[in-house]
Design a protein that fits this description.
Elements lengths: L3 E2 L6 E4 L5 E3 L6 E3 L2 H17 L6 H12 L3 E6 L5 E11 L4 E5 L2 E6 L6 H10 L8 H5 L5 E6 L5 E6 L5 E2 L8 H21 L1 E2 L8 E4 L4 E4 L7 E2 L14 H14 L16 H8 L6 H16 L11 H4 L3
Antiparallel strand pairs: 1-2, 2-3, 3-4, 5-6, 6-7, 7-8, 8-10, 9-10, 11-13, 12-15, 13-14
Helix pairs in contact: 5-6, 5-8, 7-8
Length: 322
């Protein structure tokens, strides 16, 4: 996937959900893409749609993946001991603290020398994750699994997380059909309950930090863990005290973004978006994640009826409106 570079700061930019604009998470600049770029990304998303079409045949999915990864980009880092680390990635973006590379079975976070200490922060914060004993094995799959860390020759550092081969950044799916947004909200509610149970706050629940497996409906929270912290403690940048309500606010903002709205609180019901879904996303969070999940369960039934599994078929009208 071709990367867009910010003309002001040089950072790697991320597409917004519409696929028509790019946003630099480092300096905040926003650009409207030119025709050349929109044509390129229309073609890229069409490849994604074909690649992510529902298919229960494992061999067919593997062949599709092999074809997709022929177009991967490459990057090389020099470790402190002189070894060369080569990575192949499908997507990257940069925020104020790290450059993020999405590889086939890993996510690689590259920190500059002045941010190298954030690696230890990620290790400490993720070690505080706790799960109800009956659900430990299942829920832990949705949170970071650190597989490596490397000091670089320039004083920077690399942190490596494992991911499933079929997991992709939510950002790459653009806008989604409301039914698919609904199952992602359900998974995010699960994640928020774990954070609440662990007394942790993740203030960056976004399409960049969430990864999904369209075959299983699994959603995992892998990104920006250095920004997470303990409830009622100072944020990592010491700008404010963290509260668990931020988890649920991120959930609502992500849902609004996936429906094509800029901000939570501005979601409008129409012939496609049910009023109950819009009302939930526009509402303030409940006092805790468990109560919020109960409210979401009611909103889900009001919006779509009783639950059923819907494959993430990636037709234009379902996954990408652009």
């Amino acid at each position: 996937m071709k990367n867009l570079t910010c003309k002001q700061c040089g950072g790697t930019m991320a597409l917004d959900a519409s696929g028509m604009k790019a946003v630099c998470h480092y300096c905040g600049n926003t650009y409207v893409l030119n025709h050349e770029d929109t044509d390129y990304y229309a073609h890229f998303f069409e490849q994604m749609r074909r690649f992510l079409q529902s298919d229960t045949d494992a061999q067919a999915r593997k062949e599709r993946a092999e074809a997709f990864w022929r177009y991967a980009n490459e990057e090389t880092f020099t470790c402190a001991d002189g070894r060369q680390m080569e990575i192949r990635y499908m997507h990257r973006y940069r925020d104020r603290d790290a450059e993020v590379y999405v590889a086939r079975r890993n996510i690689i976070f590259h920190f500059q020398p002045d941010k190298a200490a954030l690696v230890d922060r990620v290790r400490r914060i993720t070690s505080l994750l706790d799960y109800p004993s009956a659900d430990t094995r299942r829920l832990s799959d949705f949170f970071p699994k650190i597989t490596g860390g490397f000091a670089l020759a320039d004083g920077g550092s690399i942190l490596v997380l494992a991911k499933d081969e079929d997991e992709y950044p939510l950002r790459l799916f653009g806008t989604l059909d409301p039914r698919h947004v609904a199952w992602i909200i359900s998974r995010m509610e699960n994640l928020c309950c774990v954070l609440e149970y662990s007394e942790l706050v993740h203030p960056e629940i976004t399409p960049d930090t969430l990864y999904i497996n369209p075959y299983t409906h699994q959603a995992s929270l892998y990104g920006s863990w250095w920004k997470a912290g303990e409830h009622n403690k100072l944020a990592y940048d010491r700008t404010h005290r963290l509260t668990t309500a931020e988890n649920l606010l991120g959930l609502r903002q992500t849902g609004a973004t996936l429906l094509g709205f800029r901000f939570a609180g501005e979601v409008r019901a129409d012939d496609v978006i049910p009023p109950a879904l819009a009302a939930f996303l526009n509402s303030p969070p409940q006092n805790d994640a468990y109560t919020d999940f109960e409210r979401w369960d009611k909103a889900l039934i009001d919006a779509f009826g009783e639950r059923k599994f819907i494959r993430l078929d990636t037709e234009d009208k379902q996954i990408y409106n652009g």
